[in-house]
């Protein structure tokens, strides 16, 4: 199970004044069970990239392989691909449309051709996974709060039981608690069921905390494709691209400059705490 | 997919047409549209075609882009042509089958009507291609000012128009996004019969309406927060001013209209030469 992109190029509105080369020769592989983070400045091609993964956008040139089969070949079952690769857009709550949350979450499974009972079962499961309380299942999605709507929308994609889950800034506009809960639930789902997760985010902290690998996009090109530790050692270059490293990375650099012997490739708060404790013990 | 709708959108380029005063463009477009109905002979069409080709050239908008804008009206065009073709009884009968009769006059009317409609659309979309919505509204407001005397809220109408124009690309983009989101959830928008297809639009239309209202609400709030209170006593950052090129354009357009009228009427280049 893997997604492989070979020399993918994508050009918006080709041949007009609005022409934009959004992806330039992108080569990537996403393996089964990975948790991949995608970062990049606004307009770097992140959203364009992820829309290729389930075939919503067709590359201007290049090839996309899903489980070894070229998606762009004649007669490829796109519907099948879309039920395997679940895509949660930015602000997914704006796609809710049914009269109640339950029916809305059932929309995906229903399109997969499942029986009403099965749809309901999957919807229940998905709603539980995202942590939406049962009392909201029958209420109108338009009456929910922002965070609850977001959960319902994510459940709508999870109910299709995708093998790969792609999330485009799933926590934008949420409060810290909602953010941690949603990401935590996705991370535990990733651990428990081996779900492949691709997370686009502007929060370096979130990415550092959850991702096994980071893809850095810059002006339509893949600039880095490595583990968080390695990517964040390039924090100077990241800053030039309008990005940054997690705050703890900066703190560790400062501490080292001031004479505390800590390693600087630390990306999460827990790791940093361990490092500092060790360094202090050594000093004594 | 839906991004490809080009009708009524601004096309950024550096041309004389882009620089003209919006009032000139509005009046000229109106005159051009009227001129299309001033003649019935092929010589008139030749003059109108020549004029249109010149304008398209000058606008620096690619022809393919203009043609793409015609796509949404193909249905309308087809219906018009068919009605004219079958319902006009004039001149010799060219073909006859079952209850349908095609006459020479019908054929000529149908073809001319189609050409007229296409010219009409191209002419007016050239105006929107070369004029930003802001300019367009300013121009319209200025031209309609006299109506203020008979209590027509000209400024408000112009503002509504500019908001409507501004929202076209926004709502198109929104539609595109919602469509993609629903397709990602396995929605099938293409197959099935008419009723099924209409039904499959619900998951797109409901969120679209909700978002249109949300945006309208946000905009109203933002306008009020900036103390918008209608047109009274409102000054402009860029007041409209006529330049030499604008007067020249007026002259050129008036000359064209006279030419089309005179040539179309008195140069007897009819095509009833079957």
From TrEMBL, chain A:
Its EC number is 7.-.-.-. GO terms for molecular function: ATP binding; ATP hydrolysis activity; ATPase-coupled transmembrane transporter activity. GO terms for cellular component: ATP-binding cassette (ABC) transporter complex. It is a peripheral membrane protein. It is found in: Cell membrane. ATP-binding (A) component of a common energy-coupling factor (ECF) ABC-transporter complex. Pfam families: ABC_tran. Residues 3-244 form the ABC transporter domain. The keyword Ligase does not apply. Belongs to the ABC transporter superfamily. Energy-coupling factor EcfA family. NCBIfam families: ECF_ATPase_2, PRK13637.1. InterPro entries: AAA+_ATPase, ABC_transporter-like_ATP-bd, ABC_transporter-like_CS, ABC_transpr_CbiO/EcfA_su, ECF_ABC_transporter_ATP-bd, EcfA2, P-loop_NTPase. This is Energy-coupling factor transporter ATP-binding protein EcfA2. It comes from Merdimonas faecis. Keywords: ATP-binding, Cell membrane, Hydrolase, Membrane, Nucleotide-binding, Translocase, Transport. SUPFAM superfamilies: P-loop containing nucleoside triphosphate hydrolases (SSF52540). Gene3D superfamilies: P-loop containing nucleotide triphosphate hydrolases. Forms a stable energy-coupling factor (ECF) transporter complex composed of 2 membrane-embedded substrate-binding proteins (S component), 2 ATP-binding proteins (A component) and 2 transmembrane proteins (T component).
Automatic annotation (TrEMBL), chain B:
Pfam families: CbiQ (PF02361). InterPro entries: ABC/ECF_trnsptr_transmembrane, ECF_transporter_component, EcfT. GO terms for cellular component: plasma membrane. The chain crosses the membrane at residues 30-53, 65-87, 93-119, 247-267. It is a multi-pass membrane protein. One of its GO terms (molecular function) is transmembrane transporter activity. It is found in: Cell membrane. It comes from the Bacteria. Forms a stable energy-coupling factor (ECF) transporter complex composed of 2 membrane-embedded substrate-binding proteins (S component), 2 ATP-binding proteins (A component) and 2 transmembrane proteins (T component). Transmembrane (T) component of an energy-coupling factor (ECF) ABC-transporter complex. Unlike classic ABC transporters this ECF transporter provides the energy necessary to transport a number of different substrates. This is Energy-coupling factor transporter transmembrane protein EcfT.
């Amino acid at each position: 199970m893997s997604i492989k992109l070979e020399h993918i190029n994508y050009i918006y509105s080709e041949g007009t004044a609005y022409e934009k080369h959004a992806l330039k020769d992108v080569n990537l592989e996403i393996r089964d069970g990975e948790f991949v983070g995608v970062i990049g400045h606004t307009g770097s091609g992140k959203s364009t990239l992820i829309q290729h993964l389930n075939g919503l956008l067709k590359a201007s040139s290049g090839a996309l392989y899903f489980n070894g089969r070229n998606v762009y070949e004649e007669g490829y079952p796109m519907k099948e691909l879309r039920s395997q690769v679940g895509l949660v857009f930015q602000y997914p709550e704006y796609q809710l449309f049914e009269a109640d949350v339950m029916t809305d979450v059932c929309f995906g499974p229903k399109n997969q051709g499942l029986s009403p009972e099965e749809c309901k079962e999957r919807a229940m499961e998905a709603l539980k996974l995202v942590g939406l309380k049962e009392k909201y299942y029958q209420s109108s999605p338009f009456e929910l709060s922002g965070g609850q709507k977001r959960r319902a929308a994510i459940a709508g994609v999870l109910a299709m039981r995708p093998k790969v889950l792609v999330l485009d800034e799933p926590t934008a506009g949420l409060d810290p608690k909602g953010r941690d809960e949603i990401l935590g639930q996705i991370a535990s789902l990733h651990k428990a069921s081996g779900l492949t997760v691709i997370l686009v985010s502007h929060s370096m902290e979130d990415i550092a905390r959850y991702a096994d690998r980071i893809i850095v996009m810059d002006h339509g090109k893949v600039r880095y494709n490595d583990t968080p530790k390695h990517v964040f050692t390039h924090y100077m270059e990241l800053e030039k691209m309008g990005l940054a490293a997690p705050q703890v990375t900066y703190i560790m650099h400062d501490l080292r400059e001031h004479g505390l012997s800590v390693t600087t490739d630390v990306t999460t708060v827990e790791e940093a705490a361990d490092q500092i404790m060790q360094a202090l013990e050594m000093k004594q | 997919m839906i991004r490809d709708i080009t009708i009524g959108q601004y096309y950024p380029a550096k041309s004389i047409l882009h620089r003209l005063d919006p009032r000139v463009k509005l009046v000229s477009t109106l005159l051009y549209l009227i001129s299309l109905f001033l003649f019935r002979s092929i010589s008139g069409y030749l003059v109108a075609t020549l004029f249109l080709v010149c304008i398209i050239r000058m606008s620096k908008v690619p022809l393919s882009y203009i043609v793409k804008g015609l796509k949404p009206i193909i249905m309308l065009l087809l219906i018009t042509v068919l009605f004219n073709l079958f319902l006009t009884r004039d001149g010799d009968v060219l073909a006859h089958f079952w209850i349908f009769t095609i006459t020479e006059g019908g054929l000529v009317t149908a073809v001319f009507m189609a050409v007229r409609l296409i010219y009409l659309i191209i002419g007016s979309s050239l105006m929107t291609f070369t004029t930003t919505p802001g300019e367009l509204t300013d121009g319209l407001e200025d031209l309609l000012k006299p109506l203020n005397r008979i209590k027509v809220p000209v400024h408000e109408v112009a503002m509504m128009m500019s908001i409507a124009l501004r929202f076209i690309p926004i709502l198109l983009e929104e539609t595109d996004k919602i469509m993609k989101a629903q397709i990602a959830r396995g929605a099938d928008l293409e197959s099935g019969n008419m009723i099924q297809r209409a039904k499959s639009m619900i998951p797109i239309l409901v969120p679209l309406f909700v978002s249109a209202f949300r945006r309208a609400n946000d905009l109203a709030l933002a306008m009020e927060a900036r103390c918008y209170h209608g047109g009274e006593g409102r000054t402009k950052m860029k007041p409209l001013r006529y330049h030499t090129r604008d007067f020249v354009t007026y002259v050129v357009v008036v000359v064209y209209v006279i030419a089309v009228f005179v040539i179309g009427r008195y140069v007897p280049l009819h095509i009833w030469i079957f």
